[in-house]
Amino acid sequence: MKKFVIPCLGLILLAGCDQAQQSAAEGNSTQNAVPQVTDNATSAMCSNEKLAGGWHDADVSPEAEQAVDAVLAQMGNNVRLKSILAVKTQVVNGTNYAIEFDTQDGQVWHAVVYRTLDGEFTITQGATLGDLCG
């Protein structure tokens, strides 16, 4: 009986260790990933439902202005900001900024920018013509 139980316990321990290593490896690969915005996320950001970890209306902050500056730099030298029309934020491992703005030529654009905890900005959804929630 002992000859049967001891090998079985050994196999169970090895299987458990392998699953823990796989979970740790998956956690490391997603921990440094930049959050991407999907169509489902866009509809969630435009919802009025208040959820923990969800999107919330925000004031125009210096960070939101920096996020718009990053988007404008990507759009090119011909684009001039007129005003920031709306800001929504989502706290993740950093902050997502969904920003609607208009340019001097009268066009309305929106974009999503991720700000790391270290203050670095990454554009996750480039400038798109049209209202954020339109």
From TrEMBL:
Pfam families to which the protein is assigned, alphabetical: Cystatin
UniProt cross-references to Gene3D superfamilies, sorted A to Z: 3.10.450.10
Signal peptide: 1-20
Keyword Ribosomal protein part of the UniProt annotation: no
Gene Ontology molecular functions: cysteine-type endopeptidase inhibitor activity
Alphabetic keyword roster: Signal
Recorded superkingdom: Bacteria
Cystatin domain: residues covered: 53-118
Protein's UniProt name: 2-oxoglutarate dehydrogenase
